[in-house]
Amino acid sequence: MVGWIDEWWLRLVAGLLASGFAAAAAYHVRSLSLSGAWSAVVMGTGFVTLGEPVWFGLLIAFFISSSAWSRYKRKHRTKALAEAKYEKTGRRDAGQVWANGGAGLLLCAAHAIWPDQGWLFAYIGVMAAVNADTWATEIGALSKTAPRSVTSGKPVTAGTSGGVTPLGSAAALAGAVFIGAVAALLLAAPQPAEAAAGTPGGAAAVYIAAAAAAGLAGAFADSLLGATGQAMFRCQVCGSETERAAHCGSAAVKVRGFAWLNNDRVNLLSSLFAGALAWLIGHALL
Q: Whole-model pTM?
């Protein structure tokens, strides 16, 4: 019992120090806002304390890869024009941090209490979906092909919620597969006996397949919710349709969708759907 408590405290301190350093660095390079940095410290500490390397490793893989794409494309004119319509930008705040990782932290806690492979597959699906959506947004904004509505198939302007492009869809699939591959690599490493309970070994292809299918489905679910239920507004100054309740320094008028369904909640709902799908895939294939 004493040994377990000592290990718990060691993990807690290590998680606090590591996540604090990472969050400070991300804030310095403007990948996180102040609220996002504090949220990342809390979340990162929780993952390190409760989970094994695959749990916090996937979170790190998501954050580093998505931040790298965001920074690489930040100054591109096409992306800048598209981002003017987005509710959130590349600098993640607390809402984005928790929308992308909050469900995963709950799954990590559930696995720590009741070890089972289902929690892990659900987590892989959640992270595959948020990574797929982020890669699709960052890379798809550079598409030379006009996006089309996921519901009607008609061309829409860049940055429109629910708009998809071949480039963005390919980026979504790549982002999902990336998470599956990272999961397979991390799970191939030797695991402590207590962490390995309920976790199958030698199933790299299954992890990648589950991540690819669930992540891509989650990204398209995000687009579908964005095109149908997400709150959209019209700027009273420039007349453009936007996800933002205020635009051009003035309050915008809601033109469709549910007022409570903003971008963060769309991300959360689509990632939960992907997590459930990955859970089903994992149980079906193993």
A: 0.86
